[in-house]
Structures are given as C-alpha cells and as structure tokens.
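Retro notes, item 3 of 5
We never archived the inputs for the phosphoenolpyruvate complex last cycle. Fixing that now. Sequence and ligand:
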Amino acid sequence: MDRRPVVAGNWKMHGSRAENTRLIDSLLEGVEAPRAEVLVCPPFPYLAEVVRAVKGSPVQVGAQSLCAESQGAFTGEVAGAMLRDVGCSHVIVGHSERRALYAEDDALVARKFLAAQAAGLVPVLCVGETLEERERGATAEVILRQLDAVIAVAGVQAFARSLLAYEPVWAIGTGKTASPAQAQEVHAMLRARITEKDAILGGQLRILYGGSVKASNAAELFAQPDVDGGLVGGASLQAEEFLRVVAAA
Ligand code: PEP
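Structure as it came back at the time:
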C-alpha cells in the first residue's frame, strides 16, 4: 500500500512575523517537489500571512487547534470555517498539550474533530500515553480509548479525511524519542483498530509519529511499516533541520 508520507511542523507558541518570514523563505528554497506532503502549523495570528507566503509551493498550512462550535458568543475562540476562510487545509486536534493544559477531554476532542471536518479541514488527531500510563502497561488502553472516542462520534469513515498522529507524551519536547520498535508497535495497534472496522481504510490511513523527531532519528522511525511520516515540534522551527526530516520521509 503506497501511502504518501506527511511531515507536519507544529510551531506551537513560537515565532514572530520576522522569524516566520526567515523560516518560510528558507523552507521554500529547499522544499521543491518533496515526496512527502509538507504542512506547517503556525500560531493563529500568523496563519493568513503564512498562507500567502507559501502560495504556489507544495507547503500546506494548518492550525494548532479550533473551537468545537461553529460560531457565536465564544470569546477568544476560533472557528473551523475561519481557518478555512484564511486558507488552512488542516488542523491539529487532541494535542497532548491541549488535553493536559486546557482540560480537553476525549469528548471535546471528538467534537473538535467533527467541527474540523464540517468546516472542510483535515483533522490531525493526536493520541498518546503519559510515562506513568506506559510504565503501568496502559498504553494500548489509553491510545485506543482516545481513538474510539472519535470513532464513536464521527464514525470510522470519517478517517478517510483525517490524519492520525501517535505522540507519546513522554517524548514530546523532552529529547526522548520512542524507539522505532515502540512507535511501530503502537502504530500497528492504531491501524488494526481502524482495519477491524474497515480493512481498506485501515490500509490507507496515514499515521504520523510525533515526539522529538529530528533529522538524526527521522529515517529509522519513518522506515517502520506503519509510520507514515511525522508531526514535528522543536525541529520544525529550524528550516534546515525540518527539511532534512522532510527528506527522510
Ligand atoms: C509536537 O509538538 O507535537 C511535538 C512532537 O514536539 P517535539 O517534536 O518538540 O517533541
């Protein structure tokens, strides 16, 4: 099954107009005709400007979150339709920082997933266990619970228009990466869950790995049969490093 890999950069709450311009200029210089789909996810205020900057290039733009509601009195929130309106194609939902720091539970993540698709955005659904959960042997239970919560609300067919990302919480921003074997084991479990409901979809779904991906470890992670690219935080803020991750895909 030929699944085109995806490399997505999550800039988190970093950057400025000047820094973004430098980063995007360098990315565009090096990113001609990549084999992988390439996506950058800047903070909200910069989305429209980054969309304009990458126009005509292979780079797509996603947001890091969205509101579960479509419009109305939700001060400080951003609707999926607004993200689409400024040219975003994707949006991250269920990132562990949103789950842990902003109390986004499985039910809210599922609603955000639906809101993203209703707005015509491709959700990048993140799942992952904490170190404590891994150490007590609860990895499978946690990641499948997080996935099932979305399947229950959106249906498995919704994954035809979605990306999935396995991001072990203990590996995000810590410099600790899951070993290729650890990543593969979890990716295979996630794929099996989709496959048991729809075999064709299970074979087509792209599952990204995230957690301290960088140029030096990307190739061996991406070589795993069920790893279809990466969701990259820190290393996506340096053009040269990010381009090497893209090249590894
Ligand atoms: C992330 O932001 O989703 C992430 C995986 O970060 P990092 O690559 O810095 O661990």
